[in-house]
Amino acid sequence: MSASTSELASRVRGPVHVIGAGLLGASVGLGLRERGVDVTLEDLSPTSVALAADYGAGRARAESDPEPALVVVATPPDVTADAIERALIRFPNSVVTDVASVKLAPFEELTRRGLDLTNYVGSHPMAGRERGGAIMARADLFVARPWIICRDHETPAEALALIEAVALDLGSTPLEMTPQEHDRAVSLVSHLPQVVSSLLAARLVPATDQAIGLAGQGLRDTTRIASSDPELWVQILGANRRPVIEVLEAFQSDVAAFADALRDPEQQGAKRRIADLLSAGNRGVARIPGKHGTSERFAKITVLVDDRPGELARLLTELGELGINMEDLRLEHSPGAQIGFAEIAVLPEVAERAVADLVERGWRTL
C-alpha cells in the first residue's frame, strides 16, 4: 500500500448510511468516501440524493445492500427524532447517530416513546456554513472542529468507538458531553451569536444607502452569519429555547446596563460602567480558541493590496519567502477605491521584522 493510500485508510469498519443529503450529510459522505468507506445516501428528495451522489458523497442505497455498520441522521431538527426512530427499527444491528445541533430535545422525545436507545449515540460536529445543500458540501468541513458525542451509561464501548472513528476520519476532535451540557454550551457560542447577528443586520433594512455605503469590516464581521437559513434556525432555536432564553435575557440585561450608563455619561460612575463592559468584552474574546486550539493572541499587520489579479498571491508568496508564518488572514475592500486591505495575524515576536521586510519589498502597511 502506498503512503498516500495508507494515510487515507479509514478507522471505520463497514458501510455507512447517511440519511439526509444536505450540507452536513453530504460533507460526511465526501469525507468518508475519500478514505474508501462505502457510503449510501437517503433523502426525502430523490434530487438531493442524486446531486450529492454526483458530487461524490456516496450512492443511493439499494434494497440488496447489507445493513450498515453506522447510520448518520442528518435531517432538519424538527424531524430528527422521527428519522432516528425509523433508523433504529429498520437497522436493529446498526449504530445510529445524528448530527443535529440540539441534543436534549430528540433524546427526551425518543425516551418518551419508549425506544431502546442502546445503539443510539447522539453527536454534533461543530461545523457548518451560512448556506446549506449538497452543493455547498466539503470533505474538509469538519477538520479541526470539535465533534461532541453525547453518550450515557448504557452506551456500548464499540458504539462509542465507531462514532469516535468517524469523527477522527473527518479530522474532528471528539469530545464527550451530556445532552444538557451540550445544549447550554451551544446556546452561548452558536445560538446567541446567530440571534445577535440577525437582529443587528435587521437594523440595516430601513437604513439609507448613504449610511450602508460607509460599512466597514466591523459590520461585515458581526453580520456574516445573518445570511443563514431562517427556516432552519426557527427549528434550532425552538428546540433549544430554554438555554437560549437564559443567555438572551443575560445579554438583554447587559445591553440595558450599557444603554443606561450611556444615557448620561457624565453621571458618577457611568464612564467606569461603560469601560467595564467593554473590558469584559476584551477578556471574553481573549478566551476564544485560536489556531491549534489555543487562545494565544497574535499581532495584526495590515497591508494595502492593489485590486488587480495576482497581487494577493504575490503577497502570500513573499511572506513565505521571508519565512513569516501567517496565522490568520482577513480581507477588506475599500468601497469606491481600487485597493484592499489584507489583515495578517502573525506571532508578536516576528511582527516588527515582518513589517520592515514587507516595506523593503515595496508593500505599504498601516
UniProtKB/TrEMBL annotation:
Its EC number is 1.3.1.12. Residues 300-366 form the ACT domain. One of its GO terms (biological process) is tyrosine biosynthetic process. It is an enzyme of class 1 (oxidoreductase). Pathway: Amino-acid biosynthesis; L-tyrosine biosynthesis; (4-hydroxyphenyl)pyruvate from prephenate (NAD(+) route): step 1/1. It catalyses: prephenate + NAD(+) = 3-(4-hydroxyphenyl)pyruvate + CO2 + NADH. It holds the Pfam family PDH_C. InterPro entries: 6-PGluconate_DH-like_C_sf (IPR008927), ACT-like_dom_sf (IPR045865), ACT_dom (IPR002912), NAD(P)-bd_dom_sf (IPR036291), PDH_C (IPR046825), PDH_N (IPR046826), Preph/Arog_dehydrog (IPR050812), Prephen_DH (IPR003099). It comes from the Bacteria. SUPFAM superfamilies: 6-phosphogluconate dehydrogenase C-terminal domain-like, ACT-like, NAD(P)-binding Rossmann-fold domains. PANTHER family: PREPHENATE DEHYDROGENASE, PREPHENATE DEHYDROGENASE [NADP(+)]. Belongs to the prephenate/arogenate dehydrogenase family. This is Prephenate dehydrogenase. It comes from Leucobacter chromiisoli.
